[in-house]
Amino acid sequence: MINLENKIELEEQTSEKNSALVVAATCMIAFMGVGLVDPILKTIALQLNATPAETTLLFTSYMLVTGVVMLFTGFLSSRIGLKKTLMMGLLIIVLFAGLGGLSNNIGLLIGLRAGWGIGNALFVSTALATIVSILVGNTEKAIMMYEAAIGCGMAIGPLLGGVLGSGSWRYPFFGVAFLMLCAFVALAILLPEIEKPKRKVHFLEGVKALANHKLRSVGLIALLYNFGFFTLLAYAPFLLTGYTEMQVGFVFFGWGVLLAISSIFVAPFLERKYTTYRTIMTAFVFFTFCLILLGLGTSIPILVPISIVLAGFFQGIINTLLTTIAMEIPGLERNVASSSYSFVRFFGGALAPFIAGKIGEIFDEKYSFYFAAIIVLLSLGFIVYHRQYFVTKEGNQK
To answer: Would you tell me how many other CB atoms lie within 10 Å of the CB of residue 339?
Structure first.
């Protein structure tokens, strides 16, 4: 009898793990779309007669719409269910990514990236809540799986963009549409129906959640940090002068690989050994240093690819620790916390590319990265000020 119960329990755990892996794998494909345009930014600017600042709006429109819509994903998913919300998001991405590959001017392409952001918001925010819901009682493992998927997606995205972009800047858009269609089919077949939350989330609950001081404080830190994150992601490709689409793709592939490795393995190890507070402080300092090196790279070109790849290591650590803290706030449902936190941090990502482009146009490219370094240092000050929120169980045991 006991063996039978153990067998049933083991089968349930295996099923839960497989379901979580399916969502994580799909999430990886979704995040390929973030870095996919990196290798083709210069080509798009050239062929569509756009300035670097206009081209970086491909990130700004995408991130801004993603962040705003994320505030309301909890409202939708609590009514139609997590699985249907995920699948709706994927279909929207398929539609707008496909249309993006057919566009002939930068304004239309920016608008289509905004539409893509709606699908991304529905999928990404719900994916995190879904993995956490499946792996009940194991939030840290769920977030590690989610951040690992992000890292792998961001690593493969630029590489795929480089390979497909070598033929035409349109091919990466068609590639994403095809991959997301495959992901839609995979979710439909492999992901079982997940029970709807017993309580329906109110329309403005994601907004009201920001009244929580801890969520608001950690979100502000994430917003400032993401300003540096997306300055690197959206504007650094313009420093890689003389590089082909494939070469740019390989640089950002290296960045994404280190991002994934540090998210999965390094962040948990350092957190247990040195506490969350010390680990995240150190990672922020080194990430700031990488941004300064990128600024110097305008005069010393070899520093650019080195700084980009190295930054990925520290960004992976920061991503995992910040997300874990945001998702473990008492008194907030995880799908609501995920939506609100994602809104704030994506808003920082939306501001960065265009501001970086404008600073580069008006002054010099190096000042875009120096300004981003100052913003990240400001977030470091907020970590010190709110250090009580970075004392975890591991830290208390030290």
So the answer is: 30
